[in-house]
Write a structure and sequence with these properties.
Strand order of the largest sheet: 2-5-1-6-7-8
Number of strands: 15
Distance between the termini: 32 Å
Oligomer: single chain
Shape: globular
Number of helices: 15
Strand content: 15-25%
Length: 364
C-alpha cells in the first residue's frame, strides 16, 4: 500500500444494505474532520457496458453530493451483467482486473483515504478476481461491513463474514433498526459481536425518509404515464396501499398511512376520491382506464400526481415494493438524513482510531 494514503472497502453480506448511504455518511464525517477523500466503485451494478472511462451512477451521485473533483474519483472497472459474465466464463474476457485495480486505485499524495464501495455481497466479483476479500488483499485495506437489522440472526451473517475475512474485517455498521428492536440491538447484539472481536461502530435507527421513494422514481420503474401534477414528482412516498374494498373500509385503511401511494383500478372513482382526502402523495391507476374529470380536478387542486400504468395490480405492487427495497440517495432530503443519522449514531472517533488515521492539525 502506498504511504501517501489508505483504503477502506465498504461491503455487505446482502444486497441493498445501505452501502452507498454509509459511504456518503462516513465521507461527510471525515471531510468535517478536515480529511481528503478519494472514492470509487470497482464493480458497477448498472446494466450498461462500462469501460474504464465510465463511472457507475452511484459514483456520480456521491461525487456530486460531496463536490469531489474528477481527480478524486476512480473508474468503474466492469459492470456485472450477464454478457460480461458469459465472456469471462468462456475465456473471451482475459482482462487482468487485479492489475487494473492496483493501477487505477492508488491514492494520490493529497488523499488521506480512498473509499471503495463493494458489490452486493461478499461473493460478487469472485469470477473476476474482485470479490471483497480479493480487493482487500490486492490493496492491503480493511473492510467495513454494512448490515440491515432484520432480527438478532444478523449475527449469523456477520460471524460467517468474520470467519471468512479474518483480520481484514475492521468492524460493522448495523442500520435500519426499528424502534422496537433498538433495545435488543444495543443490549444483546452489539455486546455479543464485540465479544466475538467484531467492533460495532454504529447502530442506525430506521428512517422512513431513507426508506421512501420519490414519485419520479415510481414513474421511472413503472414506466408510468403522468396524468397530472408533473411538477410534483419530487413528492416522497413512504408507504403503499391497495384500494380494492368498499369506500368506507378504504377510508379507515387509508387514514392509517402517511405519505402513501395508492394503487387502484382506473374505474374506482370512489376509492380515488377517498384516497385524495387522506395522506396520499400519489395515485397509481391500473387497467388503462382514465380517471374522471372530477378526480383529475381534485388531484390538481391538492397537487397530487396521478399515474397510469399498463400493468396489472399484482405486477405494479411487486415493482413498487422492489423499488422501496432499493434505497437511492438522489433526493437532498435523504442526503441530509444520512448525514444527521451518522453524526448522531456513528462513533467516528473510534472508527478513525481503528483505521489509524488522524484529523489534520488546525492551521494557526
Amino acid at each position: 500500500m502506498s504511504d501517501s494514503g489508505k483504503y477502506l472497502l465498504v461491503g455487505s453480506t446482502e444486497a441493498y444494505s445501505g452501502k452507498s448511504a454509509t459511504v456518503l455518511g462516513i465521507a461527510f464525517q471525515l471531510i468535517d474532520q478536515g480529511l481528503k477523500m478519494g472514492y470509487g466503485k470497482p464493480l458497477g451494478t448498472c446494466l450498461s457496458e462500462n469501460t474504464l472511462d465510465d463511472l457507475d451512477e452511484d459514483v456520480r451521485l456521491i461525487a456530486d453530493t460531496l463536490n469531489l473533483p474528477p481527480s478524486s474519483l476512480r473508474p468503474t472497472l466492469l459492470s456485472l451483467h450477464s454478457d460480461r459474465i458469459a465472456q469471462r466464463i468462456t475465456g473471451h474476457d482475459q482482462q487482468p482486473y487485479a492489475q487494473l485495480l492496483q493501477q487505477h486505485y492508488q491514492p494520490t499524495a493529497s488523499e488521506d483515504l480512498v473509499l471503495l464501495e463493494g458489490a452486493g455481497t461478499l461473493n460478487e466479483g469472485q469470477l473476476f478476481g474482485l470479490s471483497m476479500l480479493q480487493m482487500a488483499q490486492i490493496l492491503n485495506g480493511p473492510i467495513l461491513l454494512v448490515a440491515r437489522y432484520h432480527s438478532p440472526l444478523v449475527v449469523d451473517g456477520l460471524l460467517s463474514a468474520k470467519e471468512r475475512l479474518g483480520d481484514r474485517l475492521l468492524g460493522v455498521l448495523i442500520n435500519d433498526i426499528s424502534p422496537e428492536q433498538m433495545e435488543q440491538a444495543t443490549g444483546l447484539v452489539q455486546p455479543f459481536l464485540e465479544q466475538q472481536g467484531i467492533p460495532v461502530f454504529g447502530l442506525l435507527p430506521r428512517s422512513q425518509i431513507l426508506r421512501s421513494v420519490s414519485v419520479g422514481e415510481l414513474v421511472h420503474h413503472l414506466k408510468a404515464e403522468v396524468l397530472c401534477c408533473r411538477d410534483r414528482l419530487d413528492l416522497m412516498v413512504e408507504s403503499l396501499k391497495i384500494g380494492a374494498m368498499n369506500v368506507n373500509s378504504a377510508l379507515k385503511y387509508f387514514r392509517k398511512a402517511h405519505n402513501m401511494a395508492v394503487v387502484t383500478g382506473g374505474d374506482r372513482t370512489d376509492l380515488q376520491l377517498a384516497a385524495l382526502e387522506t395522506s396520499t402523495h400519489c395515485l397509481i391507476l391500473t387497467g388503462q382506464i382514465p380517471p374522471s374529470t372530477t378526480v383529475l380536478q381534485r388531484a390538481e387542486d391538492l397537487e397530487v400526481p396521478i399515474l397510469s400504468v399498463d400493468l396489472d395490480t399484482l405486477t405494479t405492487v411487486e415493482i413498487i415494493e422492489h423499488t422501496f427495497g432499493q434505497v437511492r440517495l438522489q433526493e437532498a432530503v435523504k442526503v441530509q438524513c444520512i448525514r444527521e443519522l451518522m453524526a448522531d449514531h456513528f462513533n467516528v472517533t473510534r472508527f478513525m482510531a481503528a483505521l489509524g488515521i488522524e484529523a489534520p492539525m488546525p492551521v494557526g
